[in-house]
Amino acid sequence: xxxxxxxxxxxxxxxxxxxxxxxxxxxxxxxxxxxxxxxxxxxxxxxxxxxxxxxxxxxxxxxxxxxxxxxxxxxxxxxxxxxxxxxxxxxxxxxxxxxxxxxxxxxxxxxxxxxxxxxxxxxxxxxxxxxxxxxxxxxxxxxxxxxxxxxxxxxxxxxxxxxxxxxxxxxxxxxxxxxxxxxxxxxxxxxxxxxxxxxxxxxxxxxxxxxxxxxxxxxxxxxxxxxxxxxxxxxxxxxxxxxxxxxxxxxxxxxxxxxxxxxxxxxxxxxxxxxxxxxxxxxxxxxxxxxxxxxxxxxxxxxxxxxxxxxxxxxxxxxxxxxxxxxxxxxxxxxxxxxxxxxxxxx
Length: 347
Ligand SMILES: [Zn+2]
Prior knowledge:
This protein is α/β, with parallel strands linked by helices. The chain has two domains: 14-252, 4-Layer Sandwich (Metallo-beta-lactamase, Chain A); 259-346, Winged helix-like DNA-binding domain superfamily/Winged helix DNA-binding domain (Arc Repressor Mutant, subunit A, Orthogonal Bundle). Helix content is 35%, strand content 21%. The strands form four sheets. It has a six-stranded mixed beta sheet with strand order 1-2-3-4-5-6. Helix 7 packs across helix 9 (289-307) and helix 8 packs across helix 9 (289-307). The structure holds zinc ion (ZN). Zinc ion binds at residues 25, 77, 79-80, 191, 238-239.
């Protein structure tokens, strides 16, 4: 095999292949780790255009799909895992994914549970149906991935010349994993850190109890704390260009979430509003899948207000309503905000 990247002093060798996706987020990144065993970190969605781009990309770097020994998936979203069964068929590669995202691979039950959560958030049934139809129109984007094996975080993937730590960093999804090369400070971040896009804290069932909703943003902000403590130099995300200044990006993300939380705090009243009502107030002109993103965004930030003692949930007619918790400018609230923005405590 001809060398495709000059070996760096730390030994980490990889190439990026950019593949198209049918989603608004745009193309996705597939990282090819060029050492034995040849490994893909993410593999793009299950579409003919992606397969074509991936095969051409592999050919460009001198790899045949049959040489791929393993596929590590950052998380269980179709733009990242869809091509896994096809590559497995060609190569016999092992497939790994964070344990809590295993149920998302080709299993409709998590989608049904998510639909129930959206109805509880007040999304009208016709909007939910419209969203499902749009996705179905895009093809078989959620193929089954038989035999996928779980990662818990803390594992070390050993390659010829370097090793990568598996970090379980929940937030964008419950089982999201990133790969970290401690020697060089390079992180493969999946959708946990993205340049110019705030990774959406998606409304998602708790994988251990699908009738419960995960508190995605609470988990995500904790994951940012863990990332801040790592000696990151460059970050290679699941979409878009590399992140050259991860510390600033992480600080900006915290500010973004704080601002959005404060904005939502001003929108609450004493009567209570559903996630859907707040989402349509905040983002009035959305359609299709964007409705899901908007409701997710709202509910995730309300979780922070609840954690801070500034909002509370009441359930009315099967729908969760959020209302202001008056007279509770409590110490608890300040502490909770301090955990995701230390700077605020000084102000
Ligand atoms: Zn993605």
